[in-house]
Amino acid sequence: MAERGAARIRTWLEVISKLAENADKFIDACDYDVEGSIIGYSILKYACGNKENTAQRMKYSTLTKEELEKSYTKPLPHLDFALIEAGLTRHEVDWLYGINLSRALTTAAKNYSGKYATLSTGRVQGPTLKFLETRERSIKCFVPTPYWTIKAEVKINGEFLEAEYEKKIIESKAESEAIIDSCKGKDGKTEKTKVKEFQQMPPLPFYLGSLQSEAYSLFKYTPMRTSSIAQRLYLDALISYPRTSSQKLPPAIGYQAILRQLGRIHNYRNLTAELLAKPTLTPTEGKKEDPAHPAIYPTGNLPEKGLDRAEKNIWDLIVRRFMAGFGEPAIRQSVKITISINGNHFQLNGRRTLEEGWLRFYKPHVRSEDAPLPPLKEGQKVSVKRVVL
User: Fold this and answer.
1) Is domain 6-79 classified as CATH 3.40.50.140?
2) What are the residues whose beta carbons fall under 8 Å from the beta carbon of 273, sequence distance 6 or more?
3) Active site includes 241?
4) What crossing angle do the helices spanning 81-93 and 34-42 adopt, rounded to 10°?
5) Are 389 and 169 in contact (CB under 8 A)?
6) Architecture of domain 208-324
7) What is the reported pLDDT for 197?
């Protein structure tokens, strides 16, 4: 069976084969990933006359001019055979599991119904469908049980606030109604205040999965859309290779040079200047490593053509995540005030930022908003407007 477009690919391969006849050196410059490695290997083996064992390999994570030139002048001495084996194994599993089972499903459906319909499965699709089926059965078997929550609306220093009953969930309606009756017509008083300061560490560098998750949370972009946008930004040499699982940013990428380049954009100028003034730049990193590529980072190249809104959002998100990783921890404060209404305990929860640290580099993508509470002393009377079931 031939793929669509095979005639065009045949022409390319014939040209490569002709050029290879008089070549004395071969360098594989395909993407440094499983797909790129298997493509380069296959061309060298079948179109270039078994040159896969003598070819050198370019390894790069960005399409910037500097990195491509460096990877060309200093290539790896041989192909990345571990990635090639992974690719060959994946193709074989696709054939054994995917193509054959898809054919079996399609044939079985036709024999049963008398109508033809293509049914497909594969090494990813099949197990995923099983997970979904198991989850759907669990959802359908779930038996909901009723519960109640209680909230008190209080007035403090002219400000209306909502306090939650100390038990988040009350499973008995009679118990919840008894609490409501006990609070009717009663004022409250503060019993204790608990103040806690804590550090909020800078976020980890993006790998593809975390970028997709953050983009969905912020912009509601599907994972496929985010991956497609990131690929376009990579091809425009604006970001590093996106299909990585790494949370590491090695010094070799050149932190200072990237920040200096980004500082040419007005919105980033003051932020990059602040980071460049540090005596050393040490990024926050996670445990995940990828032998082929580092975490996703901006190359420092600026857009040569206009980006659409989605591309701007994803690029800005990657730029700000990169800068935030070099920021100081944010210092935040949480406050919990317990209010007693006729012996029933309700809690007011507040939080505020004492020192922004990395948060100012990540704005406007920060979602932890402040919710400060008015100053209160223990034993202070509190006006209760209503208690709601």
Assistant:
1) yes
2) 263
3) yes
4) 90
5) no
6) Orthogonal Bundle (1.10)
7) 95
Contact 341, 259 (CB under 8 A): no
CB 43 within 8 A of CB 17: no
d(CA 61, CA 71): 10
Which residues, 6 or more positions from 72, have their beta carbon under 8 angstroms from its beta carbon? 27, 29, 58
The answer to whether residues 217 and 313 touch, using CB atoms and an 8 Å cutoff, is no
Burial of 22 (0-12, 13-18, 19+ CB in 10 A): exposed
What are 32-53's pLDDT values in tens digits? 999 999 999 999 999 999 999 9
CB-side exposure of 273: number of CA atoms within 13 Å?
7
- The span from the CA of 154 to the CA of 162, in Å, is 6
- pLDDT > 70 fraction of the chain, expressed in percent and rounded: 99
User: Do residues 300 and 253 make contact, with C-beta atoms less than 8 angstroms apart?
Assistant: no
314: enclosing H helix or E strand: helix 309-324
pLDDT tens digits, one per residue of 289-347? 998 899 999 999 999 989 999 999 999 999 999 999 999 999 999 999 999 999 999 99
For domain 151-202+330-388, which architecture applies?
A: Distorted Sandwich (2.70)
What are the domain boundaries of the chain?
Answer: 6-79, 87-141, 151-202+330-388, 208-324
- Catalytic site residue from 241, 255, 297, 362: 241
CA nearest neighbour of 271 among 320, 202, 200, 329: 320
